[in-house]
Amino acid sequence: MAGIGTAWLARQLSHPRGVGGRLVGAALNRDNRDTVTAAVEALDLQAGEVALDIGFGGGVGLPVLLAAVGTAGRVHGVDISATMLARASRAHRRDCSAGRLHLHAGSITGLPLDDGSIDAAMTVNTIYFVADLDLAFAEAARVLRPDGRFVVGIGDPVAMRKIPVVRHGFRVRPVTEVMDALARAGLHVIAHRRFGDSAAAPHRLLARRLG
Predict the structure, then answer these.
(1) What percent of the chain is modeled with pLDDT above 70?
(2) Burial zone of 100 (CB within 10 Å; 0-12 exposed, 13-18 middle, 19+ buried)
(3) What gap in Å lies between CA 61 and CA 178, rounded to an integer?
(4) Secondary structure, 3-state, 11-61
(5) How far separated are the first and last CA of the chain, in Å rounded?
């Protein structure tokens, strides 16, 4: 029974759907709030910039990004889950109507955005569900403007492998492998920090698009 439960949770974490997906989205907001907020802070957004949250899930990062770019800025959110898109659309109806927030159905390997249209992007706890990391980071690089910033947030690999749900389809990669994939996409890692002080704390990689 426990195995069935963790398999269901893994499916919902990778692609939230229906009532279960809404419950998972609420849990993600609660559990990831500090991590996502720290990721936004690392982007060092300026008023009037255009920001992107890839795989925004429960949407906890969207209001933080909106506050960071101010009334003259814009935020794009991309997610594969219709459930999460509907949730964010309801929660941010006014910002969507005002053209400050744009929500898109899509994935990190196929971003529905123009080349060089984003000043800064982030993705937190998403790449476990991506088979082709090179393609994903190439897409992130494509939509970033020259010198654009990109934050990747991931759990510590050693700590994650101890979590039962991870056995069901998660791709847990060494941090060095993630950094190498960023470099191949032309995204130069300029800072590697932890989201916390413990040895099990998640990792935050800040990169800039070269040229």
Answers:
(1) 89
(2) middle
(3) 22
(4) HHHHCCCHHHHHHHHHHHHHHHHHHHHHHHHHHCCCCCCEEEEECCCCCCH
(5) 52
Tens-place pLDDT, residues 119-137: 999 999 999 999 999 999 9
Q: Which two tokens stand for residue 81?
A: 């889950």
What CA–CA distance (Å, rounded) separates 66 from 61?
9
95 near 123, Cβ under 8 Å?
A: no
Q: Which residue has the tokens 């003259």?
A: 72
